[in-house]
Amino acid sequence: MLGRSGLSVSEVIYGNWLTHGETVDRAAATACVAAALDAGITTFDTADVYAMGEAEAVLGAALRGTRRESVEIATKVCLPTGDGPNDRGLSRKHVFESCHASLRRLGTDYVDLYQAHRFDPRTPLEETLVAFDDLVRQGKVRYVGVSEWTAAQIEQALTVAGELGLTRRIVANQPQYNMLWRVIEPDVLPLCRAEGIGQIVFQPLAQGVLTGKYRPGAAPPAGSRAAAAGRAPRFIGRVLGDAVLDRVQRLRPLADEAGLTMAQLAIAWTLATDGVSGAIIGATRAAQVTENATAAGVRLSPDLLAAIDQTLGDLVDRDPAKTADMFAVKPEWSAA
């Protein structure tokens, strides 16, 4: 269940940041979506800003022919989608225009979850929340959520929504979260657990680092995200320091003992966290989707969870001040 809402989501969620419309062609994207459906994945995550709308269009085309009621589609609004002053943020104007554009690209009458991609300090929170609520009343949005908001921002939104008596309160938060990046644990997670807000986390594999495919002192393997064209190498390059890669390799015996791949171990670890409703995976090949989807339902023993913590040690970042800053990393993480 997504928090304390009535919406069911798949534990493993298929997302298309940096893939559809960028590093993966339409044929491969369609195959990945088909593999996700075959594996029992029902929840699909995207955003208006991914590939400047192309990711939504590719996902919509790939899902065409699938019974709409059998899947949950989530998308987002806030980050710049154009050069104009109103092509960004959470103003009523941009929220409405972006939602309608997303619906057209996705080829659907409604989205199951509409999320504020970041907090917008320029727009009154009341304006944003009422705009979201109006979309719910119009039937274009079923549930609303946020992404990479701090605990204070989420708490403020809950307070304002209560004062305004809005139809639909926030039921989801989408933060970055994985074995290495745990900055939501001190503040965001406790608040969301208390308020019934489910976490749909992204980068459970730390952009592939936790799969173990990258090794200390070695060039990125061919076909990997770090060796790809486009923006992907810039993002993953921040976490390819030998200190991280060496420690990740020490997780391999733990995965082997559990009968899991490194990727399955990392996803299952994320799903073991109380309050996490689902983990978003990306893929360039259908086989990756099939492998990673099997992490759903895996339960890790307390001894294994403790061994993971001991292995990663002080490389884990739990600094709550870095919430909402997905580009912040510990110095020892970087290859620079």
Automatic annotation (TrEMBL):
Sorted keywords for this record are: NADP, Oxidoreductase
InterPro entries assigned to the protein according to its UniProt record, in alphabetical order: AKR (IPR020471), K_chnl_volt-dep_bsu_KCNAB-rel (IPR005399), NAD(P)_OxRdtase_dom_sf (IPR036812), NADP_OxRdtase_dom (IPR023210)
Q: Where is the NADP-dependent oxidoreductase domain?
A: 12-310
Q: Which Pfam families match?
A: Aldo_ket_red (PF00248)
Q: Does the keyword Signal apply?
A: no
Q: Which family does it belong to?
A: Belongs to the shaker potassium channel beta subunit family.
- Name of the protein: Aldo/keto reductase
